[in-house]
Amino acid sequence: MGDRMAKHDPAARRDAIVQAAADLIVEVGPGKLTHRLVAKRAKVPLGSTTAYFASLDELRQEALGLLVREIDDALTQIRQVFECDPAAAPDHLIDMLHDYLSERRNVVADVALSATATFDDQARELALSWADGLVVVLREYLGADNAHAVAMITEGAGVHAAIRGEALSRDHLRRALSPFIPASFTPVDGVSK
């Protein structure tokens, strides 16, 4: 979204502020969010952040809500892969996880958020939403234990990518996950959608 649009479109300006706050939450944590940081990132006057949000807490909640919706969208995409093409789901899952882990911003943000989550309840809830959501999606096809293992390995692979500056190769990721992922997915008996 261009700066010009945000200046002349109140909804676009508000969206830019929320997006900037969300980006900052994953970079510095929700506890370090300030109106000044958000305004600078959104490229809007400082007063805009208070004009659209009654308090910093309200802005923080909107930004956290945006991040949760982004996580939910990603999990929905994973679920759709399983539902549409169960035979190809294992390969698609590896590809989707590899693509995510290959984006430096994703892994650095996840590691920063995880570190903040150790001390901040709001960050903890957000940090857990991806792993917990992934378990919910995968347990239908893998069972609960294997779904938890995949989530934990994925989290570790994110830390690995953040520290090393590059993701594991698809082959390494596939080998790490293969003990927990069958050659094809079929719903596990007794687990409802």
Automatic annotation (TrEMBL):
Keywords: DNA-binding. Residues 34-53 bind DNA. Residues 11-71 form the HTH tetR-type domain. This is TetR family transcriptional regulator. It comes from Gordonia liuliyuniae.
